[in-house]
Amino acid sequence: MSKVTPSLLVRDDRTKRRNAAERRFRFYGLGAIGIAALALVVLLTTVVSSGVGAFRQTYVTLEIALPEDKLDKTGTRDPDLMARVTTFGYAPLLRAALIRQLAELGITTDLSDKHIGEMISKEAVATVRNHVLANPELVGTTLTIDVLTEGRVDGYFKGRVTMESAALDGNTSPEALEIAQRLADLGVIKTRFNWRFLTAPDASDQRPEAAGLGVAILGSLYMMLVVLVLALPLGVAASIYLEEFAPKNRLSDFIEVNISNLAAVPSIVFGILGLAIFINFGGLRQSSPLVGGLVLTLMTLPTIIISTRAALKSVPPSIRDAALGVGASKVQSVFHHVLPLAAPGILTGTIIGLAQALGETAPLLLIGMVAFVREYPAPYSETAGLFGEAATALPVQVFNWTQRADPGFAERASGAIITLLVFLAIMNIAAVLLRRRFERRW
Amino acid sequence: MKDIQVIESTQTTTRQKISAKNVKVSYGETIAIKDVSVEIAPNTVTAFIGPSGCGKSTFLRCLNRMNDTIDICSVTGDIRLDGENIYDRNVDPVQLRAKVGMVFQKPNPFPKSIFDNVAYGPKIHGLARNKSEMADIVENALRKAALWNEVKDRLENAGTGLSGGQQQRLCIARAIATSPEVLLMDEPCSALDPIATAQIEELIDDLRQNYCVVIVTHSMQQAARVSQKTAFFHLGSLVEYGDTDQIFTAPVDPRTESYITGRIG
Ligand SMILES: Nc1ncnc2c1ncn2[C@@H]1O[C@H](COP(=O)(O)OP(=O)(O)OP(=O)(O)O)[C@@H](O)[C@H]1O
Ligand SMILES: [Mg+2]
Question: What are phi and psi of B205, to 5 degrees?
């Protein structure tokens, strides 16, 4: 027997080489996934570790005496007259309250009164004033209220500011932080969850502790509504027409190529377009969510059209034949059979488009949404119309805060990024769930 | 106006149901059908036979203008249904397809329930006034397609969950539920077992009472069993057309003879 058939129990060289190639490929694949996952983990940990502080905030409980001779000279308790006393009239009251409380608690310090007063946020004065104007009957009594501490004190309790850094910082001092620590030990200063970060409007450069995302979230929400209401029907209608009805000729090829090109246009170009068309030519208001929404609609349309067309294409043509074969019209075949089958793909595309729009910054900068806005924008107003009141947007707020000097804003910016990421994650999860829910097999 | 047309068309049914003259079909540059003329009689089963790729499906799809859906496909010539040119500018293909139903080569049920599959045609044509009428139509169609006994307990299940042969019968039920005048069947039995095939052939024979049936088949025996007329296509032309008996016993053209005896194809 010279020729033996090879045994199945022994691998021949070819098989060995093939298996080795397969192992190598798997290893490369795993490596790629590992690198991607590592990058994601690093990104998330940096953002979360620097931004999580924004969701906690330090408050001091003050017992503020509200003397009538300072706050309501007329004694009428008329808020309009009381409003003549500005925040400058209130600031000494807050400082006095803290100094008195320190004395009562037996905390002695060589810190000047002025510096003690600076431990309280400038925002706190406005908070107290507004509270008193809303409740005039408080005048003459002692008000116990939790107010914001100054940003450095807040930073100390979050580990952002240390005794060493405070020694080098002109805006605070180790003595002030020691007092803060004593007050915290006694329960007068507390750190708790910061709802205001999600609800409050932006604050000026000196008070990062008061800055919140309220206006930005509203602005982003309004813009998403505009985008959804405009881009979804427009995009789906355009895709259905192009995919199902348009004759295949030079013109439709040209349109097709240009839609793909449009998807690749840098977003800032859409901002320039929006500025030129909607604001300068159309006369719409700067900084308004309406203009922002229109610009983002233009930007999102190609994404929605491309994904909708892909979804429509993936519906087997035999379904269309079947519908036409029993005498359905073209429109009936599309709306009764093709569109329901394409719905999951359309939904995913739309949500991905919306998510993209939610994170878009550059075009919004150009149409003035980077403005400092403290008023909550109403969805509708007589003067500004629908979504016409000035607002900002989440990513723009991030950009805005990273530009500011006070390190407190760096923390806020990271917090805003976390918020943005949470919204994006919610949208993507919704896309996956909706897809699962509506997916049908054929 | 309508009445006159109806009278006209009833008069013409005594002649041919479909008459096609000098039909040419091309897909872009490729010519699929060259100059085919056929007269299809009412209340008969006409079989189209021929080797794969000779244009049977293409020609069949001309008869209900399904080729309109293929952009590159162009049809010239004259095809008349009851004397009316179906490629006339005033003809709405949707109306035509309600009269000329079709069963496709590959089963293509809608991804909906079995009931909805069959009910779809009657629904869009408004053939049922209420639910029970619709249920009757669906049951009738499923019975005729020899599927009722297998699915009567699961009408709400997905049509796509049936076996290939059952799906094909579902498609037949769907096509006859709209009571077309002409039924075009493109290899309706290619996915069926002998028992279901026999049932479908029986159905085709029944349908002949009321409808005109055109069937494409690769099975000589089937053509011989169910049809009264047979057309043999080869490379895009109609080689021979005549009574089924004559085609199978005394073919005139040598190509027909070689095909039915198994030498080409
Ligand atoms: N959609 C299409 N686009 C381009 N060419 C086509 C198309 N459909 C069919 N053809 C061509 O037309 C010719 C006839 O095809 P057809 O489907 O009519 O053949 P057939 O006789 O039905 O074959 P079979 O018995 O295999 O179903 C073939 O050469 C085919 O390549
Ligand atoms: Mg065919």
Answer: -60, -40
